[in-house]
Design brief:
The protein has helices at 28-39, 51-63, 82-96, 119-147, 175-194, 223-233, 245-255, and strands at 19-23, 43-48, 68-72, 101-104, 156-161, 200-207, 265-269. The protein has 2 domains: 11-207 and 244-269, 3-Layer(aba) Sandwich (Rossmann fold), CATH 3.40.50.720; 212-241, no CATH class. It is globular. By secondary structure, it is an alpha/beta fold.
C-alpha cells in the first residue's frame, strides 16, 4: 500500500464535493449530521417530514458552504414506502450526478411498559427504525453499485443510526426501541459482509444521551435532572453527558476515506457507557 497519505493525513477525512443524503434531517441528530457534512464541503440532500424545519436546516447548510436540495419525505405509516426511499436517492443522483454518502438519521421511539403497549406502537417503532433503514440502504446500494467506484476505489458510505440500546436493555419501557436498534445492528453487520467487496462500507453510529431539544431537561440544574444524571453518570466512565460535537468526529470518520477498512461496525459515541 502506498504511504502517500502520510504527507497529508488530514486528506483521509476530506469529503469536499461528495454527495450525501441525510434522512430525518429535521431531527436533532439528522440536522447535526447535515450541517457537519455541509460544513466539511459535501453536497447534501435533506429528507424529513417537517418541511418548515427542513428549510431551516437547508439554509444553515448553505450558510456553512454546502450546496443543498430539499426532499420532503412524508414517511408513511407501516408499511414503509420503498417508492419514497427510491425517490430520495433518485433526487440526489439527479441533483448532483451521484451518491457517495447515506446517513439514515430518521427514527422513532414510543416508550411504554410491555404490558401496556399497543402492538401497533411496537410495529410503528420497528417500521420507522428498521424497515426505513433497510429500504434506504437498499436504494442507496443500488445507486452506488450502478455508478461504480470513484477514482479512489470507493463505492460509497452507508451510515445507519444505532444506539447503546441496541446492545443494552433499559428498564423504562424500551422493548420496542431496544429491539429496533438491535435489528439495525444486524442489518449493519449483514450488509457489511454482503457489500464488502464492492467498495461500499456499511457502519452504524451508536450514541447514548447527547444534548438535544428532547434531552435538554437532563442538562438543567434541577433536582429531577440532577437525580437522573447521577444514576446515568454512574455508568459513564467519562463522567458527563454527550454534546453534539461528540458525534461530529465519528460521523465524519465514517463518511470519509479514513474508515475504508471499517465495515459492519457499530461505533458507540457513549463516553464508555457500553464498555462497562
Amino acid at each position: 500500500m502506498s504511504d502517500d497519505f502520510l504527507k497529508n493525513p488530514a486528506a483521509l477525512f476530506d469529503i469536499r464535493g461528495k454527495t450525501a443524503i441525510v434522512t430525518g434531517a429535521s431531527g436533532a441528530f439528522g440536522s447535526l449530521a447535515a450541517k457537519v457534512l455541509a460544513g466539511a464541503g459535501a453536497n447534501v440532500v435533506l429528507a424529513a417530514s417537517r418541511e418548515g424545519e427542513l428549510k431551516k436546516v437547508a439554509a444553515e447548510c448553505q450558510a456553512l458552504g454546502g450546496k443543498s436540495t430539499i426532499v420532503t419525505a412524508i414517511v408513511a405509516k407501516r408499511p414503509s414506502s420503498a417508492e419514497n426511499c427510491d425517490a430520495i436517492v433518485d433526487a440526489a443522483a439527479t441533483a448532483f450526478g451521484r451518491l457517495d454518502i447515506l446517513v439514515v438519521a430518521s427514527g422513532l421511539n414510543k416508550v411504554s411498559k410491555i404490558v401496556d403497549q399497543k402492538p401497533e406502537d411496537f410495529l410503528d417503532v420497528m417500521d420507522a427504525n428498521v424497515t426505513q433503514s433497510w429500504l434506504m440502504a437498499r436504494a442507496a446500494a443500488r445507486q452506488m453499485l450502478k455508478q461504480g467506484k470513484d477514482r479512489n476505489g470507493l463505492g460509497g458510505k452507508i451510515i445507519l443510526t444505532s444506539s447503546a440500546r441496541g446492545l443494552l436493555g433499559h428498564p423504562a419501557g424500551y422493548t420496542a426501541y431496544c429491539a429496533s436498534k438491535s435489528a439495525v445492528d444486524g442489518i449493519t453487520k449483514a450488509l457489511g459482509c454482503e457489500l464488502g467487496e464492492t467498495g461500499i462500507t456499511v457502519n452504524a453510529l451508536g450514541p447514548t444521551v447527547f444534548r438535544s431539544p428532547l434531552t435538554a431537561w437532563m442538562y438543567e440544574d434541577t433536582e429531577r435532572a440532577r437525580d437522573v444524571r447521577k444514576g446515568f453518570l454512574a455508568r459513564v466512565p467519562k463522567g458527563r453527558l454527550g454534546e453534539p460535537s461528540d458525534l461530529a468526529g465519528p460521523l465524519l470518520f465514517l463518511a470519509s476515506r479514513a474508515s475504508d477498512f471499517y465495515t459492519g461496525h457499530i461505533l458507540y459515541a457513549d463516553g464508555g457507557y457500553t464498555a462497562g
